[in-house]
Protein backbone atom coordinates (compact mmCIF):
# COMPACT_ATOMS: atom_id res chain seq x y z
CA UNK A 1 0.00 0.00 0.00
CA UNK A 2 1.10 3.57 -0.57
CA UNK A 3 2.13 6.03 2.13
CA UNK A 4 -1.07 7.95 1.36
CA UNK A 5 -3.42 5.11 2.31
CA UNK A 6 -5.64 6.19 5.19
CA UNK A 7 -4.81 4.77 8.62
CA UNK A 8 -8.47 3.90 9.13
CA UNK A 9 -8.13 1.19 6.47
CA UNK A 10 -4.66 -0.09 7.36
CA UNK A 11 -6.01 -3.26 8.97
CA UNK A 12 -8.82 -3.86 6.44
CA UNK A 13 -8.87 -7.35 4.93
CA UNK A 14 -10.78 -7.15 1.64
CA UNK A 15 -13.25 -9.75 0.44
CA UNK A 16 -11.72 -12.44 -1.78
CA UNK A 17 -13.94 -13.18 -4.79
CA UNK A 18 -13.94 -16.54 -6.51
CA UNK A 19 -11.39 -17.22 -9.21
CA UNK A 20 -12.09 -15.96 -12.71
CA UNK A 21 -9.05 -17.46 -14.51
CA UNK A 22 -8.40 -17.02 -18.23
CA UNK A 23 -5.46 -19.38 -18.70
CA UNK A 24 -7.63 -22.23 -20.00
CA UNK A 25 -11.22 -23.36 -20.48
CA UNK A 26 -12.62 -24.53 -17.14
CA UNK A 27 -15.77 -26.27 -15.98
CA UNK A 28 -16.58 -23.39 -13.69
CA UNK A 29 -18.26 -24.54 -10.48
CA UNK A 30 -16.72 -22.06 -8.04
CA UNK A 31 -18.75 -18.84 -7.93
CA UNK A 32 -22.39 -20.00 -7.83
CA UNK A 33 -23.22 -18.51 -11.20
CA UNK A 34 -26.15 -19.85 -13.18
CA UNK A 35 -25.24 -22.36 -15.91
CA UNK A 36 -28.03 -20.88 -18.03
CA UNK A 37 -28.03 -17.63 -20.03
CA UNK A 38 -30.27 -14.72 -19.04
CA UNK A 39 -33.87 -14.78 -20.21
CA UNK A 40 -34.11 -13.85 -23.92
CA UNK A 41 -36.25 -10.81 -23.06
CA UNK A 42 -33.58 -9.62 -20.63
CA UNK A 43 -30.94 -9.73 -23.35
CA UNK A 44 -33.25 -8.02 -25.84
CA UNK A 45 -34.12 -5.12 -23.56
CA UNK A 46 -30.51 -4.66 -22.44
CA UNK A 47 -29.43 -4.38 -26.08
CA UNK A 48 -32.10 -1.74 -26.71
CA UNK A 49 -30.96 0.20 -23.63
CA UNK A 50 -27.37 0.18 -24.91
CA UNK A 51 -28.43 2.51 -27.72
CA UNK A 52 -29.04 5.29 -25.18
CA UNK A 53 -25.99 4.98 -22.99
CA UNK A 54 -25.17 8.65 -23.56
CA UNK A 55 -27.95 9.38 -21.05
CA UNK A 56 -27.89 8.81 -17.30
CA UNK A 57 -29.94 5.95 -15.96
CA UNK A 58 -33.13 6.67 -14.03
CA UNK A 59 -32.03 7.03 -10.37
CA UNK A 60 -35.54 6.08 -9.22
CA UNK A 61 -35.64 2.89 -11.34
CA UNK A 62 -39.32 3.59 -12.00
CA UNK A 63 -39.90 1.10 -14.82
CA UNK A 64 -38.04 -1.60 -12.91
CA UNK A 65 -40.13 -0.89 -9.82
CA UNK A 66 -43.29 -1.23 -11.90
CA UNK A 67 -42.21 -4.60 -13.25
CA UNK A 68 -41.19 -5.77 -9.78
CA UNK A 69 -44.49 -4.75 -8.21
CA UNK A 70 -46.45 -6.60 -10.90
CA UNK A 71 -44.55 -9.81 -10.08
CA UNK A 72 -44.01 -9.58 -6.32
CA UNK A 73 -46.56 -7.04 -5.11
CA UNK A 74 -44.16 -4.73 -3.28
CA UNK A 75 -44.56 -1.01 -3.94
CA UNK A 76 -41.80 1.42 -4.87
CA UNK A 77 -41.46 2.73 -1.30
CA UNK A 78 -40.88 -0.82 -0.03
CA UNK A 79 -37.98 -1.71 -2.36
CA UNK A 80 -34.51 -0.36 -3.07
CA UNK A 81 -32.58 -1.57 -6.13
CA UNK A 82 -28.80 -1.63 -5.94
CA UNK A 83 -25.62 -2.55 -7.77
CA UNK A 84 -25.77 -6.19 -6.73
CA UNK A 85 -27.00 -7.26 -3.31
CA UNK A 86 -23.55 -6.44 -1.92
CA UNK A 87 -24.43 -2.76 -2.21
CA UNK A 88 -27.67 -3.07 -0.26
CA UNK A 89 -25.74 -4.93 2.45
CA UNK A 90 -23.21 -2.11 2.62
CA UNK A 91 -26.00 0.49 2.72
CA UNK A 92 -27.47 -1.32 5.72
CA UNK A 93 -24.15 -1.30 7.56
CA UNK A 94 -23.72 2.39 6.73
CA UNK A 95 -27.25 3.43 7.66
CA UNK A 96 -27.95 1.40 10.78
CA UNK A 97 -24.67 0.28 12.38
CA UNK A 98 -22.20 2.28 14.46
CA UNK A 99 -20.35 2.17 17.77
CA UNK A 100 -23.65 2.16 19.66
CA UNK A 101 -25.33 -0.32 17.29
CA UNK A 102 -22.87 -3.18 16.66
CA UNK A 103 -23.43 -6.05 14.28
CA UNK A 104 -23.61 -9.79 14.84
CA UNK A 105 -23.52 -12.69 12.37
CA UNK A 106 -22.35 -16.33 12.20
CA UNK A 107 -18.64 -17.10 12.14
CA UNK A 108 -19.12 -19.19 8.99
CA UNK A 109 -21.15 -17.15 6.52
CA UNK A 110 -20.83 -14.74 3.59
CA UNK A 111 -17.40 -13.15 3.88
CA UNK A 112 -18.54 -9.63 3.05
CA UNK A 113 -20.32 -9.09 6.40
CA UNK A 114 -17.07 -8.76 8.34
CA UNK A 115 -15.55 -6.68 5.52
CA UNK A 116 -18.44 -4.20 5.55
CA UNK A 117 -18.29 -4.00 9.34
CA UNK A 118 -14.57 -3.21 9.28
CA UNK A 119 -14.91 -0.83 6.33
CA UNK A 120 -17.53 1.20 8.21
CA UNK A 121 -15.83 1.02 11.61
CA UNK A 122 -18.62 -1.09 13.10
CA UNK A 123 -17.92 -3.35 16.10
CA UNK A 124 -19.07 -6.87 15.37
CA UNK A 125 -19.37 -10.31 16.92
CA UNK A 126 -19.15 -13.62 15.08
CA UNK A 127 -21.24 -16.36 16.68
CA UNK A 128 -20.06 -19.94 16.10
CA UNK A 129 -22.32 -22.29 14.23
CA UNK A 130 -23.28 -25.56 15.87
CA UNK A 131 -21.18 -28.64 15.14
CA UNK A 132 -23.49 -29.58 12.29
CA UNK A 133 -22.99 -26.09 10.75
CA UNK A 134 -26.55 -24.98 11.56
CA UNK A 135 -27.35 -21.56 13.01
CA UNK A 136 -28.53 -21.82 16.62
CA UNK A 137 -31.51 -19.45 16.65
CA UNK A 138 -31.31 -19.14 20.44
CA UNK A 139 -27.95 -17.40 20.08
CA UNK A 140 -29.72 -14.45 18.44
CA UNK A 141 -32.81 -14.18 20.63
CA UNK A 142 -32.82 -10.82 22.39
CA UNK A 143 -29.19 -10.17 21.51
CA UNK A 144 -29.71 -6.37 21.27
CA UNK A 145 -27.41 -6.00 18.28
CA UNK A 146 -28.06 -5.64 14.56
CA UNK A 147 -28.35 -9.16 13.16
CA UNK A 148 -27.13 -10.22 9.71
CA UNK A 149 -28.01 -13.76 8.61
CA UNK A 150 -27.71 -15.36 5.17
CA UNK A 151 -30.66 -17.68 4.71
CA UNK A 152 -29.90 -20.15 3.23
CA UNK A 153 -26.43 -19.69 4.65
CA UNK A 154 -23.27 -19.65 2.57
CA UNK A 155 -21.12 -21.62 2.18
CA UNK A 156 -23.02 -24.28 4.15
CA UNK A 157 -26.26 -24.12 2.13
CA UNK A 158 -28.40 -24.74 5.22
CA UNK A 159 -31.68 -22.83 5.65
CA UNK A 160 -33.64 -21.66 8.67
CA UNK A 161 -37.43 -21.76 8.62
CA UNK A 162 -39.66 -18.71 8.41
CA UNK A 163 -40.75 -19.35 12.00
CA UNK A 164 -37.16 -19.37 13.23
CA UNK A 165 -36.37 -16.10 11.49
CA UNK A 166 -39.51 -14.52 12.93
CA UNK A 167 -38.43 -15.50 16.44
CA UNK A 168 -35.21 -13.56 15.95
CA UNK A 169 -37.02 -10.52 14.55
CA UNK A 170 -39.62 -10.44 17.33
CA UNK A 171 -37.01 -10.74 20.07
CA UNK A 172 -34.96 -7.76 18.84
CA UNK A 173 -37.56 -5.00 18.34
CA UNK A 174 -35.03 -2.20 18.86
CA UNK A 175 -32.46 -3.58 16.46
CA UNK A 176 -32.28 -4.26 12.78
CA UNK A 177 -32.49 -7.83 11.47
CA UNK A 178 -31.26 -8.30 7.90
CA UNK A 179 -31.93 -11.60 6.14
CA UNK A 180 -29.79 -12.13 3.06
CA UNK A 181 -31.77 -14.37 0.68
CA UNK A 182 -29.33 -14.59 -2.23
CA UNK A 183 -30.07 -18.31 -2.65
CA UNK A 184 -33.69 -18.49 -1.53
CA UNK A 185 -35.05 -19.47 -4.96
CA UNK A 186 -33.38 -22.90 -4.78
CA UNK A 187 -35.35 -24.30 -1.87
CA UNK A 188 -35.51 -21.74 0.92
CA UNK A 189 -38.55 -19.86 2.19
CA UNK A 190 -38.55 -16.08 1.79
CA UNK A 191 -39.51 -13.94 4.76
CA UNK A 192 -40.10 -10.87 2.57
CA UNK A 193 -43.84 -10.78 3.51
CA UNK A 194 -42.81 -10.25 7.15
CA UNK A 195 -41.41 -6.81 6.26
CA UNK A 196 -45.01 -5.58 6.34
CA UNK A 197 -45.43 -6.97 9.85
CA UNK A 198 -42.13 -5.84 11.40
CA UNK A 199 -40.46 -2.49 10.94
CA UNK A 200 -37.01 -3.80 11.96
CA UNK A 201 -36.65 -6.35 9.14
CA UNK A 202 -34.77 -5.99 5.84
CA UNK A 203 -34.75 -8.79 3.27
CA UNK A 204 -32.15 -8.69 0.50
CA UNK A 205 -32.05 -10.70 -2.71
CA UNK A 206 -30.17 -10.71 -5.99
CA UNK A 207 -30.72 -11.29 -9.70
CA UNK A 208 -27.25 -12.91 -9.91
CA UNK A 209 -28.16 -16.51 -9.15
CA UNK A 210 -31.67 -17.63 -10.11
CA UNK A 211 -32.08 -14.98 -12.84
CA UNK A 212 -28.69 -15.54 -14.49
CA UNK A 213 -27.55 -11.93 -14.16
CA UNK A 214 -24.35 -12.13 -12.10
CA UNK A 215 -22.51 -10.00 -14.65
CA UNK A 216 -25.20 -7.32 -14.71
CA UNK A 217 -25.03 -6.58 -10.96
CA UNK A 218 -28.59 -6.11 -9.76
CA UNK A 219 -29.78 -6.62 -6.21
CA UNK A 220 -32.55 -5.27 -4.03
CA UNK A 221 -33.77 -4.85 -0.49
CA UNK A 222 -37.34 -5.10 0.78
CA UNK A 223 -38.33 -3.34 3.99
CA UNK A 224 -40.84 -0.93 5.48
CA UNK A 225 -40.89 2.53 3.82
CA UNK A 226 -38.99 4.16 6.70
CA UNK A 227 -36.01 1.80 6.37
CA UNK A 228 -36.03 2.16 2.57
CA UNK A 229 -36.01 5.93 3.00
CA UNK A 230 -32.99 5.70 5.30
CA UNK A 231 -31.03 3.60 2.84
CA UNK A 232 -32.03 5.88 -0.03
CA UNK A 233 -30.42 8.70 1.94
CA UNK A 234 -27.17 6.73 1.85
CA UNK A 235 -27.63 5.89 -1.83
CA UNK A 236 -28.22 9.48 -2.87
CA UNK A 237 -25.23 10.54 -0.79
CA UNK A 238 -22.90 8.13 -2.60
CA UNK A 239 -24.11 7.22 -6.11
CA UNK A 240 -27.64 8.18 -7.23
CA UNK A 241 -27.17 6.36 -10.56
CA UNK A 242 -26.14 3.09 -8.94
CA UNK A 243 -28.09 0.85 -11.34
CA UNK A 244 -27.06 1.35 -14.96
CA UNK A 245 -29.54 1.50 -17.84
CA UNK A 246 -28.67 -1.86 -19.39
CA UNK A 247 -28.90 -3.67 -16.07
CA UNK A 248 -32.21 -2.01 -15.30
CA UNK A 249 -33.59 -3.05 -18.68
CA UNK A 250 -32.29 -6.60 -18.25
CA UNK A 251 -33.98 -6.77 -14.86
CA UNK A 252 -37.30 -5.77 -16.41
CA UNK A 253 -36.84 -8.46 -19.06
CA UNK A 254 -36.00 -11.09 -16.46
CA UNK A 255 -39.11 -10.25 -14.46
CA UNK A 256 -41.18 -10.72 -17.60
CA UNK A 257 -39.88 -14.30 -17.82
CA UNK A 258 -40.59 -15.77 -14.40
CA UNK A 259 -41.51 -19.13 -15.95
CA UNK A 260 -38.01 -19.29 -17.44
CA UNK A 261 -36.50 -18.51 -14.03
CA UNK A 262 -38.59 -21.14 -12.27
CA UNK A 263 -37.75 -23.77 -14.87
CA UNK A 264 -34.03 -23.09 -14.46
CA UNK A 265 -34.28 -23.25 -10.67
CA UNK A 266 -36.11 -26.58 -10.88
CA UNK A 267 -33.39 -27.94 -13.16
CA UNK A 268 -30.67 -26.79 -10.77
CA UNK A 269 -32.48 -28.45 -7.85
CA UNK A 270 -32.75 -31.74 -9.78
CA UNK A 271 -29.06 -31.57 -10.73
CA UNK A 272 -28.15 -30.78 -7.12
CA UNK A 273 -30.01 -33.81 -5.81
CA UNK A 274 -28.49 -36.05 -8.49
CA UNK A 275 -24.95 -34.86 -7.78
CA UNK A 276 -25.44 -35.12 -4.01
CA UNK A 277 -26.69 -38.69 -4.36
CA UNK A 278 -23.74 -39.70 -6.52
CA UNK A 279 -21.22 -38.03 -4.21
CA UNK A 280 -22.68 -39.85 -1.22
CA UNK A 281 -22.21 -43.15 -3.05
CA UNK A 282 -18.51 -42.24 -3.28
CA UNK A 283 -18.34 -41.65 0.47
CA UNK A 284 -18.73 -37.88 0.61
CA UNK A 285 -20.33 -36.14 3.57
CA UNK A 286 -22.28 -32.92 3.00
CA UNK A 287 -24.74 -30.50 4.48
CA UNK A 288 -28.39 -30.34 3.43
CA UNK A 289 -28.30 -27.70 0.74
CA UNK A 290 -31.19 -25.41 -0.15
CA UNK A 291 -29.00 -23.47 -2.58
CA UNK A 292 -27.41 -23.84 -6.01
CA UNK A 293 -24.28 -25.39 -4.50
CA UNK A 294 -23.13 -28.35 -2.42
CA UNK A 295 -20.78 -28.20 0.56
CA UNK A 296 -18.97 -31.51 0.74
CA UNK A 297 -15.94 -33.33 2.12
CA UNK A 298 -14.49 -36.81 1.80
CA UNK A 299 -12.85 -38.65 4.70
CA UNK A 300 -10.04 -40.03 2.53
CA UNK A 301 -8.77 -36.89 0.81
CA UNK A 302 -7.80 -33.45 2.09
CA UNK A 303 -10.13 -30.68 0.95
CA UNK A 304 -7.40 -28.50 -0.54
CA UNK A 305 -5.77 -31.45 -2.30
CA UNK A 306 -9.08 -32.36 -3.91
CA UNK A 307 -9.56 -28.74 -4.99
CA UNK A 308 -6.07 -28.65 -6.54
CA UNK A 309 -6.50 -31.98 -8.32
CA UNK A 310 -9.83 -30.86 -9.78
CA UNK A 311 -8.29 -27.58 -10.88
CA UNK A 312 -5.50 -29.44 -12.65
CA UNK A 313 -8.23 -31.31 -14.55
CA UNK A 314 -9.90 -28.07 -15.60
CA UNK A 315 -12.67 -28.08 -12.99
CA UNK A 316 -12.98 -25.16 -10.58
CA UNK A 317 -14.68 -25.48 -7.19
CA UNK A 318 -14.37 -23.12 -4.20
CA UNK A 319 -12.04 -23.99 -1.34
CA UNK A 320 -11.91 -22.01 1.91
CA UNK A 321 -8.86 -22.02 4.17
CA UNK A 322 -10.64 -21.26 7.45
CA UNK A 323 -9.68 -24.28 9.59
CA UNK A 324 -13.20 -25.28 10.62
CA UNK A 325 -14.25 -25.72 6.97
CA UNK A 326 -10.91 -26.43 5.30
CA UNK A 327 -11.81 -30.06 4.58
CA UNK A 328 -14.87 -28.98 2.59
CA UNK A 329 -15.27 -27.70 -0.94
CA UNK A 330 -18.21 -25.69 -2.19
CA UNK A 331 -19.42 -27.00 -5.52
CA UNK A 332 -21.70 -24.89 -7.70
CA UNK A 333 -24.50 -26.87 -9.33
CA UNK A 334 -24.29 -26.57 -13.09
CA UNK A 335 -25.78 -28.48 -15.98
CA UNK A 336 -26.17 -32.25 -15.80
CA UNK A 337 -23.21 -32.55 -18.19
CA UNK A 338 -21.03 -30.38 -15.96
CA UNK A 339 -22.03 -32.40 -12.91
CA UNK A 340 -21.19 -35.64 -14.69
CA UNK A 341 -17.79 -34.27 -15.70
CA UNK A 342 -17.16 -33.37 -12.06
CA UNK A 343 -18.29 -36.77 -10.79
CA UNK A 344 -16.12 -38.63 -13.31
CA UNK A 345 -13.10 -36.54 -12.33
CA UNK A 346 -13.67 -37.11 -8.63
CA UNK A 347 -14.06 -40.83 -9.16
CA UNK A 348 -10.71 -40.87 -10.94
CA UNK A 349 -9.04 -38.85 -8.18
CA UNK A 350 -10.37 -41.13 -5.44
CA UNK A 351 -9.15 -44.17 -7.38
CA UNK A 352 -5.67 -42.63 -7.52
CA UNK A 353 -5.61 -42.13 -3.76
CA UNK A 354 -6.23 -45.79 -2.94
Count the DSSP helices.
Answer: 10
Largest sheet: 7 strands, mixed
CATH architecture group name of the largest domain: 3-Layer(aba) Sandwich
Total strand segments: 13
Strand order in the sheet with the most strands: 2-8-7-6-5-3-4
The named CATH superfamily of the largest domain = Type I PLP-dependent aspartate aminotransferase-like (Major domain)
For the record, the CATH class of the largest domain is Alpha Beta
Q: Spans with pLDDT under 50 lasting ≥5 residues?
A: none
The helix fraction, in percent, is 25-40%
Kindly identify the CATH topology of the largest domain.
Answer: Aspartate Aminotransferase, domain 2
Structural class: alpha/beta
Q: Measure the end-to-end span.
A: 46 Å
Counted up, domains total 2
Mean pLDDT: 97
Could you tell me the strand content as a percent range? 5-15%
Give the ordered list of helices and strands.
EHHEHEHEEHEEEHHHEEHEEEH
Shape: globular
CA radius of gyration:
21 Å
Structure description:
The chain is α/β, with parallel strands linked by helices and 354 residues long. The protein has two domains: 9-36 and 259-353, Aspartate Aminotransferase, domain 1 (Alpha-Beta Complex); 40-257, 3-Layer(aba) Sandwich (Aspartate Aminotransferase, domain 2), CATH 3.40.640.10. The chain contains ten helices and 13 strands. It has helices at residues 40-50, 62-72, 84-96, 112-119, 162-171, 225-235, 245-255, 258-281, 303-312, 336-353, and strands at 27-28, 79-82, 103-106, 124-127, 146-150, 177-180, 201-206, 219-222, 285-286, 293-297, 315-316, 318-319, 329-332. A seven-stranded mixed β-sheet has the order 2-8-7-6-5-3-4, with helices on both faces. A four-stranded antiparallel β-sheet has the order 9-10-13-12. The longest helix has 24 residues, at 258-281. It is globular and about 60 Å long. The N and C termini lie far apart (46 Å).
